[in-house]
Design a protein that fits this description.
Layout (H helix, E strand, L loop, with lengths): L6 H14 L4 E4 L2 E6 L2 E9 L5 E10 L10 E5 L3 E2 L6 H12 L8 E2 H12 L5 H15 L2 H17 L7 H9 L8 H14 L7 E2 L1 E2 L1
Parallel strand pairs: 2-8, 7-9
Antiparallel strand pairs: 1-2, 2-3, 3-4, 4-5, 4-6
Helix pairs in contact: 3-4, 4-5, 4-7
Length: 212
């Protein structure tokens, strides 16, 4: 019979993962996270229903939008890992995340480099609309005209070139209406980010700069 994930084992697994990603803090047991500008960057270790395995998921969360909980947005997931993990599969998965992540796990990050990484990741992710939404918010949050214009062109082109993201034209138009449209909205988004950090209890996590 497979070993089950007890609280003590979850704490041990969380510690081991944190050793692989020392630039991240423990948000909750089985959940690592740090804050990079207006993004919460996390690795959630999702316990499955039989409690003998967990699924590592790398994700980001957009703090520019008022939310009740941290979302697992634009995820990169991995194969399930057994609770006992006698072969240390978690080390292989952690290396996979480091190799395939579209944002560094620690250190300050250049916004323009991140935007370019997002553009590349767009082609391989199944969460294309969500990624475009985050890019749009980042561009407005930045307050930088050059970034805003570049992202607006990219997002606009993808909305037109990839209509299958939405299924119907009505859904596409409704989604576009949810996006920030004006770079003058930058200060409002920055206020929301600060409020969300408090609301979602992120203030005690490691913070790093998203350099404009």
């Amino acid at each position: 019979m497979r070993k089950k994930l007890t609280l003590s084992l979850k704490n041990e697994i969380t510690r081991k993962w944190n050793e692989q990603f020392p630039g991240m803090g423990v948000y909750k047991t089985m959940w690592l996270m740090n804050v990079c500008g207006p993004l919460a960057v996390g690795i959630a270790l999702l316990v499955k229903s039989d409690k003998t395995v967990y699924e590592p998921v790398f994700h980001i969360h957009n703090l520019c939008v008022d939310s009740e909980a941290v979302s697992l947005n634009v995820p990169i997931d991995a194969l399930y890992i057994y609770a006992d993990d006698t072969r240390n599969e978690y080390l292989k998965v952690s290396e996979k995340f480091k190799e395939t992540s579209y944002i560094p796990f620690d250190g300050d990050v250049s916004l323009t480099d991140l935007i370019e990484s997002f553009k590349i990741h767009f082609d391989v992710t199944c969460y294309k609309a969500n990624l475009l939404q985050i890019m749009a918010y980042l561009a407005v949050w930045s307050g930088a005209e050059e970034v805003f214009d570049d992202v607006r062109r990219f997002v606009g082109n993808k909305f037109n070139d990839r209509p299958e993201m939405f299924g119907t034209e009505i859904v596409r138009k409704e989604f576009i209406e949810t996006l920030p449209q004006d770079i003058d909205d930058s200060e409002r988004l920055r206020r929301i980010v600060k409020e969300q950090e408090v609301k979602l209890k992120l203030t005690g996590l490691p913070h790093r700069e998203l350099i404009i």
